[in-house]
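Submission checklist for the structure archive. All mandatory fields must be present; incomplete records are returned to the submitter.

[x] Identifier: Cell division protein FtsQ/DivIB
[x] Organism: Pontibacter toksunensis
[x] Residue count: 216
[x] Sequence attached
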Amino acid sequence: MSINIDNEYNNYFIGDKEVRDLLTREGERKLEGLYNQDIDLKNLEKRIEANKFVEDAEVYRGLDGNVHVQVKQTRPIARIIRTDQQDVYIDAEGNILPLSDRYTARVIPITKSALIKSSDKGFFQDSIGTSYLSLLQFIENDQFWKAQIAQMHIDGKGKVSFLPQVGEHTIEFGKPVRVEQKFKKLMIFYKEVLPVMGWEKYKRVNIEYEDQIICE
């Protein structure tokens, strides 16, 4: 078998050994030595894709007679912090992923008020939760904000706040609407206000409302 695992996002949730174990049911069903007609490629793909850390898999026969395996890993974009049970990841599509003993992803941690619907049972895929997922996707796809946002919190009213990597201020974002416009305002604050007033000047920066930035 020839195994290739896509690692575009530097994830290490699954390796060659784990893929081989999935293909052979941990060695119980060896593939080497079988005739081609005795190998169900689609079934092998389903075995691999059953793993939570696999987004997509392709298994095919090569001209060299080998079975070739292409694996695309899932991409976590946040980690949900839970006080009553183990934390979980959320991927770019809003699916919930377990933690891994093999690798810890460096993603934004999320805390939330107990008044908010459980965020690990389809929350990020329902009509309300998709707006929070879109906010996380925006941060994930922007190099500056991905590096600057250290933590996200959802309060009992559904409003979002952030703690930054640099600076002592809390960013009060409000509901996850007008996302791009709000981050543009925040960038103006970083570029035009903080260099003059100093990074330690403000403890609270509110960008919730249109056409204004409130700093205290």
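[x] Structure attached
Curator remark: The CA atoms of residues 40 and 59 lie 10 Å apart. The first strand starts at residue 2 and ends at 6.
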